[in-house]
Fold this sequence. Notes:
Number of domains: 1
Helix content: over 70%
Radius of gyration: 21 Å
Strand content: under 5%
Structural class: mainly alpha
CATH topology: Amino acid/polyamine transporter I
CATH architecture: Up-down Bundle
Number of helices: 18
CATH class: Mainly Alpha
Largest sheet: none
Bound molecules: 4-fluoro-L-phenylalanine
Order of helices and strands: HHHHHHHHHHHHHHHHHH
Amino acid sequence: MNQREQFSTRLGFILATAGSAIGLGAIWKFPYVAGQNGGGAFLFIFIVFTFILALPLMMAEFAIGRTGGEDAVTSFKKIAPNTKWHWVAILGMITCFILLSFYSVIGGWVITYLGKAMTGSLNGLHANEYASVFEQTIANPWISLGVQLIFILITILVVAKGVQGGIEKAAKIMMPALAILFIILVIRALTLDGAGKGLAFLFQPDFSKLTSKAVLDAMGQSFFTLSIGVSVMITYSSYLPRTENLPRSAVSIVSMNIMIVLLAGLAIFPAVFSFGLAPDAGPVLLFHVLPTIFSQLPLGMFFFTAFLIVFLFAALTSAFSMLEIIVSVLSKGDSMKRRKYAWIIGIAIFIFGIPSSLSYGVLSDITIFDKSFFDLADYAVSNILMPLGALMMAIFVSWKMKKSVLFEQLSSGSNISRGIFTSWYYLLRYVAPVLIFAVMLDVLGVWDK
Length: 449
Ligand code: PFF
């Protein structure tokens, strides 16, 4: 099959990009980062960054991808020949490599729970026993590496085949199922005793507690959940026909993602406060809270299993996009090479991810810069590499590409007004670079007196 014909339908493209965006970022990462950063104020800046940075950048990546019409590296080379700009795409590939190495650890945790829920080994546990059962399980190196490997193998197999067709069909059922299961979960969470405290935590911002770390985390989170700054959106949009309305696609993806983020927050925080758990428990937060809420529902384990299946699907569709961008550059449309590179890179990612996987067990005492391997990889990706990629992307589009080309890209298939286009353009040209740079420097204490 010819690579460049992949998404001939609008829905296919939306599902693939939404599939890349919606994943562990909204469901697992958002609650734990918001929990560590005080809740409401974090949610507020996260939403602001989503609209003033991540959404315009998504449109920027779409414009690059459709102008270039090739894999990310080649697209940069085509648009800016004889320059070093294609290194932005190479940086994106490196970022995705590191990203998948720890993303797969969490994907593995979902598989672990799925196994437990399906075999009934969680039945009859008391609400506060789930956390210790979970902790013991992930501390076991064989289990934690085994499930991580399963997650990566599924990713390799799908990317090696080079078809998104089956996935698109499944996504049409899985995405609505995810939303419905979340709504059930939210209703249960909101009717728990003491749910109000969780709502207050999430929706009453206390800006006095906002730290520079929280601001950087919020920016990193807005890029992370929307897969921005790593060329994924460039790669996917390169498969698009001219008639596709880029701004409208970007707005739909961002809205779907925000909806899932809000549902996750509305499910998790009321439960955290009602059960007296710690909102700043870190990456394990979701995994402590979820079974506890489900155990309070009739047919709880059935719903929990269903939830874990769609959750795993959402995590996998994000993982596919990470491996896809690396493999698409290396294989250049050759299906033999695609298979070969999917395996080589996938296995290399697994090996690279071993220390992250063991961070919750045998390597838990080892820290670098005060962080475990897992936290370090996550920090490097979310707070350094993705913002850096986004910064370069903003500069590339607004300083290197022709304004007329950009207008043509954004207006073909849409009726975007000149005013909106110009605001977008200047936002990327001035506001985004300065803001991203300032937020990154702020954490280094550059602005402190
Ligand atoms: N957006 C994905 C999530 O929120 O789970 C994570 C992600 C996928 C980030 C692909 C970057 C990427 F290239």
